[in-house]
UniProtKB/TrEMBL annotation:
Superkingdom field: Bacteria
Protein name stated in the entry: Uncharacterized protein
Pfam families: A9CJY8-like_N, ACT_7
Gene3D superfamilies in the record: VC0802-like
Length: 131
């Protein structure tokens, strides 16, 4: 695996769920939200990843996540980035939640595991920067 530069984004994140039939919460896209926001609809749920302060009302949420973003853009032809990061974090006993965007990959780890995650990624040869 090539050496990656990973940025630890500021702030606390949450992973939340709403009913599959719920409307996408408009406040997530009104232009005032800062940070990563991802909304995915499946047949069984509306899943939201967002800064903890933006969790939609009525959502079941798990808070206390930190966002690590691979500095991109990454070419679509690159393979194994999430596999490598997840293997390195798993070996350190760090659970993760991953997602990808057009330009890059992101990994969320619980705040209590952040130091261990950063140490594992650095040990694997990646550069980790705190923004």
């Amino acid at each position: 695996m090539r050496r990656l530069t990973i940025d630890v984004q500021p702030g606390e994140y949450a992973v939340a769920t709403l009913a599959a039939t719920d409307a996408v919460p408009a406040h997530l896209f009104d232009g005032t939200a800062t940070g990563l926001v991802s909304v995915t609809r499946s047949p069984s749920e509306l899943s939201v990843v967002c800064p903890a302060g933006l969790v939609p009302e009525g959502a079941k949420a798990e808070r206390g996540w930190c966002l690590l973003s691979v500095r991109g853009p990454l070419a679509f032809t690159l393979t194994g980035i999430i596999a490598a990061l997840s293997s390195e974090l798993a070996a350190a006993g760090v659970a993760l939640f991953s997602l990808s965007t057009f330009e890059t990959d992101h990994v969320l780890v619980k705040a209590v595991d952040l130091e261990r995650a950063v140490a594992a990624l650095r040990k694997a040869g990646h550069e980790v920067a705190h923004l």
